[in-house]
Amino acid sequence: MDKVARHAQAALLVLGLLALWEGSCWLFRLPVYVLPAPSRIFTTFIRDLPLLLDHAAVTLLEVALGLGIGAAVGIVVAFLAFYIRPLGQALTPFLVGSQVVPIFAVAPLLVLWFGYGIWPKVAVAAMITFFPLAINLLDGLRSVPLELLEFFQALGAREGKLLRLVRVPAALPFLLSGLRVGATLALVGATIGEWVGASRGLGYLMIQANARLRMDRVFAAVLLLTLLGVGLFGLLGVLERLFPRRR
Amino acid sequence: MSPAAANTSWPPAEGESSKNALVLREIHVSFPRPDGPFPVLRGFSLAVALGEAVGLVGPSGCGKTTVLRVAAGLLRPERGEVRVRGKPPRGQVAYLPQGDSLLPWRTALGNVLAALEVDGPVSPQARKTALELFSRFGLSGFERSFPRELSGGMRQRVALLRAFLARRELLLLDEPLGALDALTRAALQDWLAEALRFFPRTVVLVTHDVEEALLLCDRVLVLSPRPAQILREIRPATPRPRPRGSPEVQTLRLQVLSALAQQAHGQSG
Ligand SMILES: Nc1ncnc2c1ncn2[C@@H]1O[C@H](COP(=O)(O)OP(=O)(O)O)[C@@H](O)[C@H]1O
Ligand SMILES: [Mg+2]
Q: To test ligand 1's pocket by mutation, which of B44, B226, B267 has the most ligand atoms within 8 angstroms of CB?
């Protein structure tokens, strides 16, 4: 009951803000190139949907590739850092420090190196995925409780068995929450990569629309990006609920 | 410690390695601390005969868990010898660690089968046997429950059943009933006595419940504060398991408690 009330409250607040926005646009006769009204954004969204989806497909491809590559490298690095102690010690401050580096700022450099195709965006998405995932997984591997391991070690379980029986299942929720953090940021990262230089993708569409003062289209792209982000977050959330931290 | 040096003093006497399931000799363990090494065991020795049940009681922090971890081959002593049936211990010991040691992502049955998976794939026959033991040991209906869904008593039954099913001669139990309320603990003590009849094992039982050790063990060792030494050895005259509240158990309990109290007094005074 309480939860329903809270959701209703949030929905009311959003509706109220939208109404305020819509009202201000009419009242002050704001031109579309300054601030389009929500109703205008919505009609543009519906009308331009085929175009938006066309570009979204490119952005999603970049995100999917970036997530896949970033996750694969992140998993390998986390396991290496876990098993090779000096490597782990050397990498940990680097991994933690990387969290405060704005990887988005690297995007222009990547475009310079990899050109205008999808690869610089894939690289940004991969880097954004890699760091939180590697840190989380390494943390998960390191924090497996000793009493879970020692029962199997005493029975003579070798490292491979320990991995399968204890370490991997114990660290899986950490990996998934790292992936969830990475996935939404990767979407933003790919879009920013497209701002810098691209011929397709939602970021490219935004820059084009912006140049033509089509702010309604810019906002429609933002709306779609938001929906995609929520969808991605939800999808990984479902995965996470399948392997919860049961502790 | 080089293997060659170990060989010169081992085996010490014909027969000792065959009649003893566990031998700890002159074990030295210390942990590194910022202010220098922190000695926990200094020349600790213990021999447990095949089929014997030995209880270890002692003040907390004296090194009981450390003794078990050394005996299980999980902690390498700086000096001293560890032999389980005359061989190095690793792989021969069912060790139930202190605290919650069940895998939280596996069901009760899954946890028990995990112990078998260490030795290879689990056959359908082994699975069937495990299921039968669930009902025999008061766990029917809980096969598919996750540890967090079980009461403390049920969780420990699963953990103990897992340790028994691991099929190792030497069973090391670190305060297996320590977290339970008095009533549940009494019930589980009877349960453990029954389980030990069904699965004969050599047991080292660490407990802070003196009565528990006296009910279930052939021999109870009273340990000093750190570094742990054996202060007293108590051998009840009657065979285990003993009835709760028997005069013998009560008399011996007072003896053990006074030995522990004397030691605590000696420390503070
Ligand atoms: N891995 C470790 N590192 C540092 N100190 C430890 C470690 N394990 C145990 N100790 C210390 O050794 C002493 C004995 O520990 P333990 O064997 O767990 O005692 P007990 O089980 O009798 O309570 C304690 O003071 C404890 O703090
Ligand atoms: Mg202990």
A: B226
Q: Does residue B70 belong to the interface with chain A, where contact is any CB pair within 8 Å?
A: no
Q: What is the ipTM of this complex?
A: 0.89
Question: Using CA positions, which residue lies closest to atom 10 of ligand 1?
Answer: B31
Residue B234: CATH number of its domain: 3.40.50.300
Q: Is B22 helix (H, G, I), strand (E, B) or coil?
A: strand
Asked if residue B164 has pLDDT above 90, the reply is yes
Pocket probe mutation, ligand 1, options B24, B40, B64, B74, max atoms within 8 Å of Cβ: B40
Domain identity same for B177 and B85: yes
Q: In terms of residue numbers, what domain contains B248?
A: 6-92+170-268
pLDDT in the model for residue A94: 83
The domain segmentation of chain A, as residue ranges, is 1-30, 37-242
Tell me the two tokens of residue A205. 């569409």
d(CA B263, CA A102): 61
Which chain A residues are within 8 Å of B167, Cβ to Cβ?
A: none
Give the residue carrying structure tokens 């429950």.
B145
Domain total of chain B: 2
Distances in whole angstroms, Cα of residue A87 to Cα of each of A90, A95, A136, A143, A163: 5, 12, 16, 18, 20
pLDDT of residue A10: 92
Q: Which ligand places an atom closest to the C-alpha of B174? A: 2
Nearest to B93 among A146, A154, A247 (CB): A154
Chain B residue nearest residue A172, CA to CA: B105
Rounded Cα–Cα distance for residues B40 and B42 (Å)? 7
Q: Is A37-242 CATH 3.40.50.300?
A: no
Task: Look at residues B18, B21, B53, B16 and name the one whose alpha carbon lies nearest to residue B170.
Answer: B21
State the nearest Cα–Cα gap between A169 and chain B, in angstroms. Answer: 8
What are the per-10-residue average pLDDT scores of chain A (247 residues)?
86 94 91 90 94 95 94 95 92 81 78 85 90 91 94 95 95 89 87 88 93 93 94 87 64
B153 and B185 assigned to the same domain: no
CA of B58 to the centre of ligand 2 (A): 10
**Span B31-85, pLDDT tens digits:** 999 999 999 999 999 999 999 999 999 999 999 999 999 999 999 999 999 999 9
Q: Are residues B10 and B86 in the same domain?
A: yes
Enumerate the β-bridge partners of residue B33. B36
| φ, ψ at B220 (rounded to 5°) | -120, 130
Asked if the Cβ–Cβ distance from B105 to A156 is below 8 Å, we say: no
